[in-house]
Write a structure and sequence with these properties.
alpha/beta; Rossmann fold; N-(1-d-carboxylethyl)-l-norvaline Dehydrogenase, domain 2; 2 domains; 8-stranded mixed sheet
Length: about 325
């Protein structure tokens, strides 16, 4: 299937490569020539501009936008809406705020252009293992683009729902990014739980404790152990074990933990709707606190973020 893709950052480039590996025709554009050239060497066709990309696609066209949430995505989708025609589709795979999807979809509908919001989870590991896709939009357009979603997802045995294969049409416009927002809110809390647990393990060897209660624990080995048959095993634990295996002290990390907005949006929605979300809210507040007084638990979270998403630590405020 032919598809255009705009934005070749960490996720976008890997999405392009995974689609190429599954035999799809990919026409890509990015403002950075080096990013374009890298995907071009892997078989992607290169566009000189957004206008060039649209002109070279065959209707009904589909363009996947993989850019940072906010102005970059807004400007690009607005321009695509001007260039595309009736029956064409724009797919927003970034971490967009779901209410922005509602606004954009309504504007595009006036032009006859379809909008899909696709919450995309998998980070750097998705290129090899596949991406979990949470899709919002019109059923007809989702069905039309099913080969793209199936190629990007991990795959698996069909069990009546595409969810078993790693992708799902979850609802109308906005629903995809809403589900992804809650996914990321849960992710914050899970990361915080792991981090606090490893902090306790590390401080069990403290001089402040009675001698009989001091344990010099190898937390790297313990993380590796928990990956094997434990009910707390997860991808987050995998990347934690990898980081601790390289350096149990995590000296490369300051512990200043950033947030990409989705944790805040999750808590805001919970507040608006008077839904208790204690663990999620506490995890978000812990990230704010890390920017004042980072500790070892915060280094654990930074290591996880680098491991699954390639995130660079923000500067300490």
């Amino acid at each position: 299937m032919q598809i255009g893709l705009i934005g070749l950052g960490r996720m976008g480039a890997n999405i392009a490569r995974r689609l190429l590996g599954h035999g799809h025709g990919i026409l890509v554009y990015d403002q950075m020539p080096a990013a374009l050239d890298a995907v071009g060497r892997d078989g992607g066709m290169l566009a000189a501009s957004i206008e060039d990309l649209v002109s070279r696609l065959t209707p009904p066209r589909a363009v996947w936008v993989m850019l940072p949430a906010g102005d970059a995505t807004d400007t690009t989708i607005e321009r695509l809406g001007e260039l595309l025609g009736v029956g064409d589709a724009i797919i927003d795979g970034g971490n967009t705020f779901w209410r922005d999807d509602l606004r954009r979809a309504a504007a595009l509908k006036l032009r006859g252009v379809h909008h899909l919001d696709v919450g995309t989870s998998g980070g750097l590991l998705g290129a090899e293992h596949g991406y979990c896709l949470m899709i919002g939009g019109e059923s007809e357009i989702v069905r039309r683009l099913e080969p793209v979603f199936a190629a990007l997802a991990p795959g698996g045995e069909a069990k009546g729902s595409s969810a078993a294969q790693g992708w799902l049409h979850v609802g109308p416009n906005g629903a995809g990014h809403f589900v992804k927002m809650i996914h990321n809110g849960i992710e914050y809390a899970m990361m915080q739980a792991y981090a606090e647990g490893f902090q306790i393990l590390k401080e069990t060897d403290s001089d402040a404790l009675p001698a009989a209660e001091r344990f010099a624990l190898d937390i790297g080995d313990i993380a590796e152990l928990w990956r094997r048959g434990s009910i707390v095993a997860s991808t987050l634990l995998d990347v934690t074990a990898a980081a601790l295996g390289k350096d149990p002290t995590l000296q490369d990390f300051s512990g200043v933990v950033g947030d990409n907005g989705e944790g805040r949006w999750t808590v805001q929605v919970a507040i608006e709707r008077a839904i208790p979300a204690m663990a999620l809210t506490t995890a978000l507040n812990a990230r704010f606190r890390s920017r004042q007084t980072p500790n070892f638990a915060d280094k654990i979270i930074s290591a996880m973020r680098r491991g699954f998403g390639g995130h660079v630590e923000a500067g300490k405020k």
